[in-house]
Amino acid sequence: NVDIIVANYGANNVGVLINTGNGTFIAQVTYTTGGSSNPAFVAAADVNEDGKIDIIVANYWGNTVGVLLNT
């Protein structure tokens, strides 16, 4: 099942919506990206090669990139 990751620009967080497998998604779970980061883009990859998909966030303000590790 494919899940959805969204950048919530004005809320300074990213949201993850888990696919239930029947065409619906659970309510979004949010993860803060800090202060006035204003996340603009997200990507998913196994950054630390532990077999789990992590979230990479490109933040508009500050021109920074953050990584949310899946633990």
TrEMBL record:
Residues in a coiled coil are: none
Taxonomy of the source species: Eukaryota, Metazoa, Spiralia, Gnathifera, Rotifera
Quick one: signal sequence residues? none
InterPro entries membership: FG-GAP, Integrin_alpha_N
Q: Which domain of life is it from?
A: Eukaryota
Q: Which species is listed as the source? A: Rotaria magnacalcarata
Q: What is this protein called?
A: VCBS repeat-containing protein
Q: Which Pfam families match?
A: FG-GAP_3
Give the record's keywords alphabetically: Signal
| PANTHER family reported in the protein's UniProt record | SENSOR KINASE-RELATED
